[in-house]
Amino acid sequence: MKILYIAPIFSPANRIAAVRSSKMAKYLQRAGHEVTVIMSETENTDVNDKLLEKDVEDISQVIRLSNSERYQSIYNRIYGVYAAHKADDGKRPVVAETGGSCTTVKRNGLKNLVRTWLNIYKSYDFASAAIRYLKTHNIAADAVVSTYGPFSSHMIARYYKKKNPTACWIAEYRDLVEYSFDHTLAGMWARKYWASVNRKADVLVAVSKGVAGKMPACENDEVHVITNGFDPEDCPAVQADAERDPRWTMSYCGALYHNRRNLSLLFRALRELADEGRIDLRQVVCVYAGKDFSQLVSQAAPYGMEQILENRGFIKREAAISIQQTSDILLLATWNTTEEQGILSGKFLEYMMHQHPIVCIVSGNVPNSEVKEIISEYHLGACCEEIGGESEFLNLKEYLYSLYQKHSRGENSMEESTGGAKNFSYSHLAQSLEALLRSNICHAGNE
Known about the structure:
Elements: E1 2-6, H1 16-30, E2 34-40, H2 50-55, E3 61-65, H3 69-91, H4 102-136, E4 143-148, H5 152-163, E5 168-173, H6 185-200, E6 203-206, H7 209-213, E7 223-225, H8 236-239, E8 248-253, H9 264-275, E9 284-289, H10 293-300, E10 309-311, H11 317-325, E11 329-335, H12 346-351, E12 358-363, H13 370-377, E13 381-385, H14 389-409, H15 426-440
Parallel strand pairs: 1-2, 1-4, 2-3, 4-5, 5-6, 6-7, 8-9, 8-11, 9-10, 11-12, 12-13
Helix pairs in contact: 1-15, 4-5, 9-14
């Protein structure tokens, strides 16, 4: 089967969003399909993911395109103005405010508005570049898979489907469509975009049941769920350099999204255990890798737990995997609210391959999150939901103490797994995607 895979965020970008698309393309190619990828050089990062670079070496063709010089010029001018304002603000004396600054509020509102439409324009601009390429190059495909975000992926696939109606189009959503729940002009645009894609695609795929449940009504009978996953082949590549810290080590790798991912309950539990004399904080370390260390400090500070934090900064994914491999506990934080549910980060699924206990804190006002369901079903560790109150907190506290005791005795702290976690390996998930392609490819042109 010839597959056109449209994934602007792709290898070698050192971004978690690049992992799913690169792994799916890798295993579809390995299954004997001819995979052609359209990706964006503009989405690349300064640091390359060496593991993903190796993954895509055998892909039939990777078409690397970029945004236009016009977009880059607009981007540079806008962010040049922002940088100048920020520098100017830093020179001003700090004064006490009573009631806030109207000028600051207006300026931040304008920044957000400009960023929103610049983001949308960026997708239109890249989609235009890809469509121009498709018009001048004969890319034959039996199926097209596009993965959101950004917006441009489905824009390109929609064009290809229009010109090649017999090709089966699978539209994937790694996340809810940005702005779609905003009561703004951008929100109206996003909802129209989402509805248009869902009407014209042959198959819809969501990364979680929560995302699938928020999809707008469409003619398709169902939304299929194919989660993010892990690739066991990533682990042997970093094991040789991994050295364990003798201390009881927990780690968190990734963003904290302005404290929406919040580990405060973890720090409270550790503080209480220390005050009760049940753990020795001198033997505890919490390793962080990412750009949001100041946010983690703000979560730990109310409990006097800054002393256990160790900042590794923003690092390559192979280094993050090495940290995970040598940790005793893998920390996870997410949220589950009326507006947003089913948030299964790529890091969560990546954790599974290490077979270390996962401790997850879920903020928000909706109980029984999807992440809690998976952790419980596959015996992966413990999940404490903020809305669960004191009883869930006490369960978390005792679970942490049991892990600390096992570490002190040199015992394996992982529960016996059900073995079902292998269903989240990318080789297995790619088979699910392949099955959808095969079952729908002969029907795509008959609608």
